[in-house]
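Good day; I would like, with your permission, to put a structural problem before you. A protein sequence and the structure tokens that stand for its backbone fold form the material at issue. The record follows directly beneath this note:
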Amino acid sequence: MTGTAVQLIAAAESSGSQDTRLILAALIGIAVIIALITFTKLHPFLSLTIGALLVGAIAGLGMDKTVTSFGAGVGATVASVGTLIALGAIFGKLLADSGGADQLVDTIVGRSSDRALPWAMALVGMIIGLPMFFEIGLVLLMPVILLVARRSGLPLMRVAIPTLAGLSAMHGFVPPHPGPLAAVGALNADLGLTLGLGVLVAVPTVVVGGPLFSRFAARWVDVPVPELFLGDAAAAEQARLDAARPGAGASAATGGAGGSALGSGTGAGSVAVSADDLVPSESRPRYRRPSFAVTLTTVLLPVVLMLAKAIAEVVNENGNGVAKRTLDFVGTPLIALLLAVLLAIYTFGIGLGFDKERLSRTVDEALPPIAGILLIVAAGGGLKQVLVDSGISKIIASWVEGSTVSPLLLAWFVAVLIRLATGSATVATITTAGILEPVAQTLSSTHLSLLVLAIGAGSLFFSHVNDAGFWLTKQYFGLSVSQNIKSWSIMETILSVSGILVVLALSVVI
């Protein structure tokens, strides 16, 4: 941050000591947040809260006004973003518990040849990553990745990298994931337009960072597929399946309990394995799965509704007909996600035979895991409001306006710095959005959405040892730190760089 910091301070000194004090307040506050998260391992919620209060105090806002400002930012963020995150968590839990995620994976992977398998796994990662938070999707798909690699005979990285690229790109670019959603709220961007452009940016980045890069990753990190540890009953079931496979004799494949499904192996004699095959018979759900068509329709419903609203705004901006008003209503993010959850309660619950107690338990279990995410996003909103109310954001905005650097490139760069320092894509996104909030007021609706995506691209840059995702992938795949950097970390960097390149290209043509 050294070069940017020096430029900011120099710009501030030219306009007075108060501006210098405000810039120093911002830099010190962000440095404290980074230090607390990185070195003391303090939870990001507490780190952001302490940092926000420190910024207000150093900036001369006064502690009473700082606390009021922070509280207002927290309240506004929870009101605009919190409900959407909760609805997204419920939807993802219904998708997982119903077997809908398994059905998507089984259908897509089971119909793919070995050559097409990396592309199919990238598609699986994107579809599963659309409604599910990254960590949940990662845990859900890890057994899939390992078992597909074992059955197909492909190198582990040829299967893993495309899947992880799909998951990670959705997490960084596409609402309703917490980071993009918080940035949309902070910058007052159009959610439907951002979602559509986010998918448009995600597709080429996944292609480059997933199937294409996986060819190199498989050569750089040539490791065997690690064994998955099972209970005795599940191990015996897997051994039976292996014995039934022609030519299987020596190898005893193992699988992961509680995961998603997977499909075909190699050759005519291969045996498709689903999640049910890896769970003891007494533990298998008694409910049937939703069909592929029903599952895909339910997953895509909120996306279609929000995109339809955005398209209607572009095509008929000043219209007031029944169709336009209807799309404006059902395409509102809260309504679109609520309708999707209500549909999922039927397609992923009641329609499959779930009773009231089973549905209630699924919804109840969906909410506690997102408490930490909600608090981090809320504290980020509080920090943003302190930056605005103290006048720091106006100084930053005036510096950006006088600079020749593109606001999109600047947003990416700031997010990269915070991502490298904190290891959290969500913290990087919401902090950068707060810093650049005044800049957003000078941008068109389309470029406002591109600003959100530029921040999202920066938040993905080079995951390393201070990122939980780094250690998750390392442990699941049994890699060394250097091997994980050569695969996972470089994949994340490719997603980030290709993402900002696509965003910059779109800014020229739209």
Remarks:
- Residues 11-15, 228-238, 240-285 have pLDDT under 50 and may be disordered.
- The first helix runs from residue 2 to 13.
- The two ends are 31 Å apart (CA to CA).
- The chain is about 75% helix and 0% strand.
